[in-house]
Amino acid sequence: MLLQLLESLEPAFFDGPALLKMVGLFCINFFVIWLIIHFFYYPKARRRDFYFTYVLLASSIFMMIYLMDGAKMEVGAALGLFAVFGILRYRTESVPIREMTYLFFVVAISVINGSTPNLSGVEHIASNLIFLIVVFLAEHFMIARKEGCKFVQYDNVELITPERREELIADLEKRLGLKVLRVEVGAVDFIRDLAMLRVYYDDPDANRIKSIDRTLKFPKAPDAFDSV
Question: How crowded is residue 65: how many other Cβ atoms within 10 Å of its Cβ?
């Protein structure tokens, strides 16, 4: 009865086919974004804050583009909106490169789905399936070695010379308890006898992204690690 009442109203108030099309495209976009975030991003990162951000951001961008008649938007306006969200930064912390890449990815999918309503259902499904395949290949087959990386402030600069690299690796393995694969030497402070090292190691838990390994400075607050 409610459907009959709506259909009896003016077409400008209720357009059944247009409504079904919008809901269908939104569901496709939401489902694809959820698959990417839930099965590819989250298992490694375990960042609920970005999970929340990606889902809401993708949904809002899709609706914004679609309701602004994305198929007729000028290219400059679409690219401008795309760039604003693509270079997004948060005031409280810098966004890691992996999170920024996924942010760029979900924005791209939402913009494409929202700005191409004239494509057929098969074309929409095929284009989104291509995105899913790319993410799957990137996450599972494009990493040559399962390795982790840590930044280490090292207190024995005498071992950073190339001819003593084996001694350096042996000392790091003893202190860290890890199988060190290679070491890169960065900034060196001879006054304080400190060197900044990037240590690559064999990581048995390589399927988990540990952003804390990229920390360059010790936090001042006791609970500063809680937000990582």
Answer: 25
